[in-house]
Design goal:
By secondary structure, the protein is α+β, with helices and mostly antiparallel strands. It has one domain: Double Stranded RNA Binding Domain, CATH 3.30.160. It contains three helices and nine strands; from the N terminus they run H-E-E-H-E-E-E-E-E-E-E-H. The strands form two sheets. Strands 1, 2, 3, 6, 7, 8 and 9 form a seven-stranded mixed sheet that branches. The termini are far apart.
Length: 153
C-alpha cells in the first residue's frame, strides 16, 4: 500500500532536480555588470532578481561596433557592455499546472560566461516551478541567483 502511494505521488508531482552548482574558473567579484545572453519568458523575473542581489543588468550585450585595423587586415567586433553574460537553459518539463499554462521543469540551468575569454565559469541548476501554480509555490530563480551570488568570487 505504501509503495503504491509513493508511486502515485511521484507520478502526480513529477521529479525535479535539487540545487546544484559547479564553478569552473575565477570570477572577478568587483565586476557586477551582467547581461542576459538569450531570451526566455522569465527574463523580467531574472532581471529583477539579479538587481535585488546587487548585479547591474545591462539590457543589450553590445551597443557599439569596434573596427581595428592592423596593416591591411581589418577586424570588426562588438564591444561588450558587461564582463559576464548569463544563459538560461530550461531542461525537460516533468509536469503541467492544471490551473495555468505553467510547466514544472526537471531543471533550469544558468550558465555564467566570461565575455572577455568566452569561457563558461559557473553553472547552477535546479528543478521546479518557475512560477506559482495553484497550491504549489514556484519561482526557483531567487535560489539560482542567490547561489550564483555566493559563488561570485
Amino acid at each position: 500500500m505504501n509503495k503504491l502511494l509513493l508511486v502515485c505521488v511521484v507520478l502526480i508531482t513529477g521529479c525535479a532536480s535539487g540545487l546544484q552548482a559547479n564553478k569552473f574558473g575565477t570570477i572577478d567579484s568587483d565586476e557586477k555588470d551582467i547581461v542576459i545572453m538569450n531570451s526566455t519568458v522569465w527574463d523580467s523575473k531574472i532581471r529583477i532578481e539579479l538587481m535585488k542581489q546587487g548585479f547591474k543588468v545591462k539590457r543589450f550585450s553590445s551597443v557599439e561596433r569596434v573596427h581595428v585595423s592592423d596593416g591591411n587586415i581589418g577586424k570588426s567586433f562588438n564591444s561588450a557592455e558587461a564582463r559576464y553574460g548569463i544563459t538560461v537553459i530550461p531542461g525537460p518539463t516533468v509536469d503541467r499546472c492544471l490551473s495555468a499554462s505553467i510547466y514544472k521543469y526537471k531543471d533550469i540551468s544558468i550558465e555564467v560566461t566570461d565575455l572577455q575569454t568566452n569561457e563558461v565559469v559557473f553553472i547552477t541548476s535546479k528543478g521546479g516551478w518557475p512560477e506559482d501554480c495553484g497550491v504549489y509555490s514556484g519561482n526557483i530563480f531567487p535560489e539560482l541567483i542567490t547561489e550564483m551570488k555566493l559563488n561570485w568570487n
